[in-house]
Amino acid sequence: MSTKLFTFKGGVHPPQNKTFTQNVPIEDAVDPKIVVIPLSQHIGAPCDPLVAVGDTVKVGQKIGESKAFVSVPVHSSVSGTVKKIEQHQVPGGSKVNCIIIESDGKFEVHESVQPKGSLESLSKDEILSIIKEAGMAGMGGAAFPTHVKLAPPKDKVIDVLLVNGAECEPYLTADHRIMLEKPELVMLGIKAIKKALSVEKCYIAIEKNKPDAIETLQKLAQGEDGIEVCPMEVKYPQGDEKRIINAITGRIVPSGGLPMEVGCVVENVGTVATIGNVFLTGMPAVQRVVTVSGSAVKNPKNIYVRIGTLFKDVIEQCGGYSEEPGKILNGGPMMGIAQFTDEVPVVKGTSGILVFNKKDAQIPEPSNCILCGRCVEACPVYLQPYKISRFSMLKKFDEADELHGADCIECGGCSYVCPAKRPLKETISIAKKEILTRRKKAK
C-alpha cells in the first residue's frame, strides 16, 4: 500500500458529519408493499415497458428495455402484480414513465437469475453483455451506463482502472460500509471489470478517514496482481472522477473530455460491488445501499433498499422524522437534489436520503460580492466562479462560455466558502445548461 496521501488543487473542508452512520452496519430494508420503478434511472435513452398492467412479475425479471446503446434495462425488485404504468415524480426533479408493482410478499426469484460462472470461463464480450443485461449504471450518483464506460472506442487505449471509494460527501457512509462488509464482492467486481477492459492496473482510492476500509481492502489486495489501495487526503470533492485521476495518476483530462481520453476508467465502489454480486448470484441491479441521515431523522442508518421503494418508507424504517423536515435531499448535502415530496422512489443513483430540520435547511440571504477570491481558490477546476455567476445572472452566456462555464462540475465548493453567501453553484449551473444546449443545437 502506498504511504503517500493523494490529493488535488483546490477543494474545501465541510464538516464530515459521518459519525451518525459510519459505525452502523448495513441493515436489510423492510420489504415494500409497493414499488415505483422508473423506466429511466440512467443517462441515455429511457426504456420501453416489457410488461402490461395486470401482469405478474418476479424478482430480477426484466421489465423495461431500450435498443439504444446508451441505456440499460430495468428489473423488478419484488414479485407481484403490475398495477399501473404512468408518469411519476423521481428524485432528479422530473416526471418519468414508471412501472408500479404491488408486492405479493413472496419475493419469488425469476428463472433467469442464475450465477454466471467463473470469470476465467467468460470472454470480454460475455462479461460486458452480463453487465449490460444486469442493468448496471453508476451508483455514485451520475448513473452513466456501465457497459458504455467499459467499451471505449478502439482508438482509446485504457490502461488504468480507478475504483472510487473516496465518498467525500458529508453524511454519506454507504460506500464505506460496503467496503467493510462486502469487500469480497468489491474484489470480484474489480476482476470482472479488469478483464472486460483488458487492464492490468487498478487503484482503489479511499480517503484516510476510513482506515478500517483501507486495511480491509489492503489485506484482500495483497494476493492480487495489479490492485493497489491508495489512501487520499480528506477533502471535498475528492470523489470527482477527474480529481481522482489527477491525484493518483497525474494525468489531466482535457476540457470537455472524458477519462478515456487519458487512458482511465473510474467506477464507484458501490457499482463495483454490485457487479461482483451480479456474477456471484446472477441477480441484476435491484437493490442498493442507501445512507439515511440528517438532523430530522430519528435513527440514522445504512439500509439495503429495493429499487423503487419510496423515500417515506425508507425514512419510516429509521424511526421516521424526529421533527418537521425543512429539506429532503437525494444524495449528499453538497451535490444532492432537494425534493418537494417524500413520495419519490429510490433509484440506482440514490446514494443517500438526507433530511434536515428547518433550522439546518435555512438558506442565508446573499449580499454583494466582495471580490475576495475565495471561490477561485476553492475551485478544483481552476475556474473563476464569481465571474461566471455574474455573467449567468446577466444572461450573458457567451461570456460565461468564454470562461469555461461548461467545465463546472457543480460541486458547490464555491458557494460553501463564499462569505457573501452568493448562489454561485446555482447560477453557474444555469449557465452550464444554456451553454451545452446551445452547443447541441449548433451541431
Automatic annotation (TrEMBL):
The keyword Cell membrane applies. One of its GO terms (cellular component) is plasma membrane. It comes from the Bacteria. InterPro entries: 4Fe4S_Fe-S-bd (IPR017896), 4Fe4S_Fe_S_CS (IPR017900), Ion_transpt_RnfC/RsxC (IPR010208), Nuo51_FMN-bd (IPR011538), Nuo51_FMN-bd_sf (IPR037225), RnfC_N (IPR026902), Soluble_ligand-bd (IPR019554). SUPFAM superfamilies: alpha-helical ferredoxin, Nqo1 FMN-binding domain-like. Residues 359-391, 399-428 form the 4Fe-4S ferredoxin-type domain. Its main location: membrane. NCBIfam families: PRK05035.1, rnfC. This is Ion-translocating oxidoreductase complex subunit C. It comes from Sedimentibacter saalensis. The gene is rnfC.
